[in-house]
Amino acid sequence: MITQTRDLKGERHRLTVLFSDLVGSTALGRDIESEHLSELLGQLRDIWHRAVAKHGGRVIRTQGDGVLAVFGYPRSGEDDGRRAAEAAIDIHRWVGLLRHDSVPPALMPLRMHSGIHAGTLLLMEGDIESGRYDLVGDVVNTAAHLSRRAAPGEILASLDSLGPHANFFELGGPIQVPDAGPEMPQARAVLRRSMVTRRFDATSRRGLTPFVGRDEVFDFLTGFLSEPHPASRRCAVVVGGPGLGKTRLLEEVLRDCDTDQFKLLRGSCESYVGAEVLQPFLQMLRASLGIRPEASIADADETARDALQPWLAQLGPRAETIIALASTGADARGGQMTVDGVVGDLLGFFTVLSAQGPLVLVIDDWQWSDDASRQLLEKLLQLPNGPRFILATRPRDDGTEWISGAPHLLLRPFAGGETDIAVRRWVPQADPFLVARVHAYAGGVPLFIEELCHSIAANDNDSFEMRSKQGGWIATLVASRLARLPPDQVKVVRAAAVIGNTVPKSLLIAACGSEPDPATLRGLADADFLFADPAGDALRFKHGITRDAVYDTITLHERQALHQRIEASLLARSEQADREDTLEALAYHSRGAGHWENAAHYAERAGDKAMAAFALDLAGSQYKAAMDALDRVPDRSRQQSLRWCLLANKLGMANIFDPLSLTDDTSVFEQAVAIASSLGDTGATASAYQWLGYMCYGFGRFREGVTHTRTGLEWARRLGDPRLIARTEAVLGQILAASCQYDQATALIDAAISTTRSRRHGAIAVGSAYSLSCKGSILADRGDFEGAHECFNEAMSLVEGSTHPVVSSVRNWVSVALVWQGRWQEAEQLAVEGARAAETMRSLLMLTACRAASGFARWSMTGDADGLQQLRNAAQWMERRNFHFYTSVQYSWLVEAAAAEGDVETARRYAAHVLGRAREGERLGEAMACRALAKLAARRGDFGRSRRWLLRAETSAGWRGSLRDAALNLAAHAELLALQGQGEAARKTATEAAEKLRALGMHWHADQTIRALAGAP
User: How confident is the model at residue 764 (pLDDT cuts 50, 70, 90)?
Assistant: First the structure.
């Protein structure tokens, strides 16, 4: 027997997939004859083909009672999702109207259920089994899954597929898809078409990004419209790439202008399949005549006749054609798109309209205008007293001007500060580093920023880049622009996408095989893909979104070939082989080429280089890449597995000083323990347990941290390695300090510091410095502020002149100690300095802690509301990431502030967090929170509850041996006595508390205690 095999080579395409099935087909097949079922299925197929073709899609496969169709082939369009939804609506409606005598009434009307999703697929020639084309990728599975989960008559569409076009439809609420994995996209039911006709109206239904950064263009346009009788300048063109806010600018300008001074008409062009010829001018014609968009032909005809009565003499024989154009469209004169035909008729109408008074015509999306519209615009601009125009458009593909001689106003992406305002509109709790990531990835494009923010709001902070790569509408927009490029430009931009966001020209030459033609590079710049990097001999993508979307269109084999070519080019440059950027590039391209061992080697070396420069975030990403590469090595050796465990230790060192920037996930470190244990390597097992414990500590899981670190210490002692023992004892001491087990912690920390002091040889003692700061925190909590500052000073001397994050960590503890003392001004100043350093080092944990300390210090000192809001913002950053490391400190400050403002509910909410942390062993803020609740209860006259809270505060202080909290508890007791009318007892207690506070160096608190009792009876 001879078998025929298909060529499995295919092409990647960005497609929107519609999967639609007939409901109840099993019962239908059982209840009617096969011949009748065949007739019915034939009618269904006719409906599927008509609906899909009407909206510019292709039927890929029909099988029984279902259809698979795609939109975006052979060329992607940014409205592919809208087309798919429109087709689905038509299919459902037309199938519902079907009638067949053989179908039992109980099964009527027939109903479909459909699913829509978008993404990148491998498209290959099909066969009799797979259909016209064979689609490979998870997008089809997702669309089919949505279709299966849709109720009878329901259309489920992923929001990724619809993008901003979602608001052309009325949508149902969020859909909970049963049995869906974590990668299942958010979906909504498409209920019906909405009344929205303009893209801006559709996107604005979910809210608008703040209007910022357009002052110069805004002022020009308002001035242009305010000119009473423009003699020469009749047209202004607003130019900007997709998503830069052209339509939004026009809305704001027109809202600001006095439109009573002129007649304003608006129209827009569309790329949509159903767009009519001369669309913007026909829209303006109908609007001027008062014809509603939903009017029937007869109603439109009648309305147009009434409106044109005063102008019949001026229009002459054109009047009838104008009426027909308004009611039936450009076919009114058989489609004669000439000055003597339809264009001439509309020219006559707008000439008459201009004679009535100043006329302004605003047209959006002019880049999609048809030839007839451009011809009419040219003729209108030639009229001596014709209308003024404002056009909003994307740049021309060839870089030339749209209207010769007209001012072209270029919209640019947002600057960093403008992005910050926009992001906080959608994600108020966004931290500065998240804002910076959004700005870099979106390139400052307002619509892209908005889309990313919606992704962040719906998911976690760390997912938005990945979700944009996997299925976001923005990638479809980029794919539609890519499809319009000529082949030579596509080849170059794909090679550039493989290289990265920044594209050295030497690597581009290596990838392409020759130097790209200057005209090709100019074309890519004009098309908004690649630009010359002002910093050097390189090109750059405008934003990461474009680069990632282009990369996603490249087939696996083509990608691997390009990565191999670039890897070879980099290896040939021996003089640059040890540079950090070269190592990073080698790691990336080795990975892309599938050379996993090389990828692991270069990624680890790049991580080591970054660690040496204290670029810990970069180091962490490289170590993770190295571990992932080793995971892909087939039949990994024992040595490679031990290397994986070592990389886990290095990853811990890179991450431990900023766990807030991570997710609370210790699975990597748990895996290291499992691997080391299975290999029977004592040293690797000891280190793995130590780092698992340390990371649990970093995530605020102190009890787990103690357990794992104690296990690691047992293994280290079994090995007999003094350095490993000392390091593990130091870690255990730090975790016990966080758990407020101070005596054990101090003993371990002192022993570890003593051991490392004897071995120091001029290197930066990061571990010792951090251990000393932990000891300082213990002494400060216990009221030995002098001893605490001695520890802090010694810690700073060990890292003097360093930019390592441990410096900020030590400073943060100093700030906290100063806050506890009531030295507000010093605390604020030091915390502000620490926040600046944290921003430079990109440490979110230190930035959060320092901003919290400076905000609380400022509020405590002056009552400044902005300071309190700064503290709340810092807490929100932690809440958003479910972060717990030492958070009882910041939350106890929030309880204190809420109690001072008399906000009982807020105080209780923050106190619940503090008390939850106390159950984990972190009790630093417990007494402060309990004191605040005791005062609130007493002010409400609930003295029994007040005494119970104060007793808990005293218990917490006693458990920790905290003299500072004991003295503050005594001061609070004095205040409670005063509220109960026991003035003499209150004064005696206050005096005693003040003396104790002064003895501890807490002079501000002592003065406040006396001042609070000054008016007591």
Answer: low
CA angle 836/417/807 to nearest 5° reads: 10
Q: Return the closest-CA partner of residue 675 out of 693, 690, 694, 688.
A: 688
CB atoms within 10 A of CB 182: 6
For the chain, how far is it from start to end, CA to CA, in angstroms?
109
Query: Are 16 and 118 contacting, i.e. CB atoms less than 8 angstroms apart?
Result: yes
Listed residue (474, 426, 365, 476) closest to 206, CA to CA = 426
Q: How many residues does the chain have?
A: 1017
* Confidence label for 126 from pLDDT (cuts 50, 70 and 90): low
Residue 199 confidence (pLDDT) above 70: no
Determine phi and psi for 788, rounding to 5 degrees.
Answer: -60, -45
Q: What secondary structure letter does DSSP report for 844?
A: H
Say how far apart CA 921 and CA 904 lie, in whole Å.
Answer: 25
Residue with tokens 């509301």: 865
In this structure, how many other beta carbons lie within 10 angstroms of the beta carbon of residue 68?
A: 23
Tens digits of per-residue pLDDT, 432-475? 888 998 898 888 988 888 878 877 776 655 555 555 555 467 78
- Average pLDDT for residues 51-75, to the nearest whole number? 90
Alpha-carbon gap, residue 875 to 890, rounded angstroms: 7
Q: Does the pLDDT value for residue 327 go beyond 90?
A: no
Would you tell me the crossing angle of helices 667-679 and 638-655 to the nearest 10 degrees? 150
pLDDT of residue 450: 83
Average pLDDT, rounded, for the chain:
87
The helix-helix angle for 297-308 and 279-289 (nearest 10°) equals: 70
Q: Are 604 and 626 in contact (CB under 8 A)?
A: yes
The pLDDT, as a whole number, for residue 274 is 59
For 742-757, how does the pLDDT look when each residue is reduced to its tens digit (9 = 90+)?
A: 999 999 999 988 877 6
What amino acid is encoded at 530 in this protein?
A: L
Q: What is the spatial distance between Cα 239 and Cα 399, in angstroms, rounded to a whole number?
A: 11
CB burial of residue 232 (10 Å; 0-12, 13-18, 19+): exposed
Instruction: Dump pLDDT digits (tens) for 344-360.
Output: 889 999 999 998 888 99
User: Between 259 and 477, where is the model more confident?
Assistant: 477
Determine the Cα–Cα distance for residues 166 and 202; give it in Å rounded to an integer: 7
d(C-alpha 970, C-alpha 368), whole Å: 76
* CA 532 – CA 505 distance, rounded (Å): 10
Please state, as a whole number, how many other Cβ atoms lie within 10 Å of the Cβ of residue 589.
28
Neighbours of 445 (CB within 10 A): 29
- H/E run at residue 204: helix 199-204
d(CA 598, CA 589): 10
Please state, in angstroms and rounded to a whole number, the distance separating the CA atoms of residues 988 and 938.
19
Quote the CA–CA distance of 489 and 527 in Å, as a whole number. Answer: 10
CB 188 within 8 A of CB 216: no
Which pLDDT value is given to residue 145? 92
Closest by alpha carbon to 476, among 146, 850, 163? 163
According to the model, what pLDDT value does residue 457 have?
73
For residue 109, cis peptide bond before it (omega within 30 degrees of 0): yes
Q: Which residue from 109, 117, 114 is spatially nearest to 163, judged by alpha carbons? A: 117
Q: For residue 516, what pLDDT is reported? A: 92
Whether the pLDDT of residue 940 is over 80: the answer is: yes
Say whether 139 sits in a helix, a strand or coil: helix
pLDDT at residue 908 is higher than 50? yes
Give the per-residue pLDDT at 7.
45
Give the residue among 916, 855, 413 at the shortest CA–CA distance from 701: 916
CB 656 within 8 A of CB 690: no
Beta-strand ranges (E) seen in 438-596 are 502-504, 530-532, 538-541
Distance from CA of residue 638 to its chain's centroid?
Answer: 40
Pairing of strands 388-393, 235-239: parallel
d(CA 151, CA 882): 36
